[in-house]
Amino acid sequence: MSSTTNSSSFPITEAQLVALFMEAVAYGIHVVTFIQCLYTWFLRLRDPSKPSRSWPWMSVAVILFAIGTLDVSFNLYHNLYAFVIYKGPDGAESQFNDLSNWVNVMRSVWARLSATISDAALISRLWIVYTSMEVHLFVVAVPILLWLGATACAVMDIELLSTLHLSSSIPGEQRLRPYLVGYYVMTLVLNVLATGLIVYRIWGVHHGTTGFYRSNSLGTDRVTKTIRIFVESALLYTVSVTVSVIVELAKSNAYYGTSDLSVELAGITFDLIIIRIWRGVTAEQSPAFARSWNREVDARRDAAREVTSIDRSRAVSPIVVRLETICVDNGKDGR
């Protein structure tokens, strides 16, 4: 039985074409950022002074790019089949409204898989940033629970989507709504919470070394730029997820465009973070920089004989270097 609830103001055929255009533009940007990411990685491998344990993060970038390529390819195929190849009754609209169509199901798989991998990488970065603190287990507990909840909603959404066999748009099908809304809300909260905790940790280290930074403007600049990298890059993906929640609640077919865009933005966001840090936008991230910083602290301690204050800076300053390094490495460099 049909349960079609398409938005008359934005028919699904138009929505799918707009979604293809939006994702194609975003994919073009994704290609550029991914190539830059590869180029920066190869340069990094050739530089013996740079940490070499960056392959896990590069692997995530490759996987996200592969998923983005698959999704935009499936999007193109779906539009070609609906508008050109299919000659049955009701035209392209009947194809797009076939909820359990294998293309619809697989595109939902790519979208959920992309977000799941991206969020897992974010949690991993959060774990590394807080691993030296006694509360690190508590800090990552809530993000992990949110990630598990979002994954469960994604699995239920895909399972239901593949078995409904109804003629309806995805945002118009009431039975999908609890899982879709739950998935997007938990993903949104996870990204905001994890990014906020990372920024809080970096700023906390900066605040704890205020006295040291007064005589070292480079330290202040790199902390500020590190925070900006996380906030600016994460903001792209977070906004797309927020809009997806809104259009889903409004039962608008604009959902197709925003959800397709989110697939590419997950990879773009990840690429931007590692490109900017690997290129040293924040500051040098090598163990040599940590050693030179500590030598400067020792010299100031001997000259001014301010043992207490200098020792405190000395204990915290390597953490700042480590925070920058572990953003893209496995946390074992620069110890």
Overall description:
- This protein is mostly helical.
- It has one domain (12-326): Rhopdopsin 7-helix transmembrane proteins (Up-down Bundle).
- It has helices at residues 12-46, 55-85, 91-96, 102-130, 136-161, 177-208, 210-213, 217-249, 255-278, 287-304, 307-326.
- The model is unreliable at 1-7, 282-294, 303-328 and 330-335 (pLDDT under 50).
- The chain crosses the membrane at residues 20-43, 55-77, 137-161, 181-203.
- Keywords: Membrane, Transmembrane, Transmembrane helix.
What is the CATH topology classification name? Rhopdopsin 7-helix transmembrane proteins
Which blocks of ≥5 consecutive residues have pLDDT under 50? Answer: 1-7, 282-294, 303-328, 330-335
What's the CATH C level?
Answer: Mainly Alpha
Helical amount:
over 70%
Q: Strand fraction band?
A: under 5%
Shape: globular
Biggest sheet record: none
Radius of gyration: 23 Å
CATH architecture: Up-down Bundle
Structural class: mainly alpha
Order of helices and strands: HHHHHHHHHHH
Q: How many beta-strand runs? A: 0
What's the structural domain tally?
1
**SS field, number of helical segments:** 11
Residue-averaged pLDDT: 77
Distance between the termini: 63 Å
